[in-house]
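Example 3.2
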Amino acid sequence: MQAQPGTLYVVATPIGNLGDITLRALAVLKSADIIAAEDTRHTRKLLTHHGVAPGQLTSYHDHNKDYKAPVLVERLRAGESVALVTDAGTPLIADPGYYLVVQAHAAGLPVVPLPGACAAATALSVAGLPTDAYTFIGYPPNKGAQRRRRFEQFREQPCSLVLYESPHRLLKCLADLADVLGERNVAVCRELTKQHEEIFRGTLAEAHAHFTQGTVRGEFTLVVEGLTRKARRRARDEEE
């Protein structure tokens, strides 16, 4: 597949294992005039691994989007093709790109998705929790009070809750989830697709105890059980 002139491609890249990239994505990355990357150093490693020599590799991230997005749109208008990538996974899923995609649509330019790796979908596939309906909230707020208020918004919902968290805030996040949501099952997925991948399943309290035992490292995706009928009945009984 050759990248088409004047087209913005939203390209998913691996979340860890460099082999988790599609043939279609590689073809577009090889033929695109411009690759707009969240971190050019990180993307260059991926391209080098797969033998891709980009036409032009340029940065596009949250800190330069205000002036970089209009530049990229003008390049698209001029007939060049642009491949948008993030550091890991699918762009716009808790990653930069929204501003550029909105401007491309507003300019009447074609925007083509190239699906692939996504930490949220990967975690859901192995969590062992209901996946017929779920809510993705990305990264919760850094501050405790704001984080707990955010979790309270989903306390009564029956569908699974999916979120990302950094190693520095994981324990506080698990404690707040348990405090706000009560006794729930959770799958804590660490370093998905990487060498030290770990998938812990248990209650929120058990997960907190497990990750308290050593140094918390890596990238985390959490899938938290929704409010079950049993939990709803238990809450009603406690109120009575």
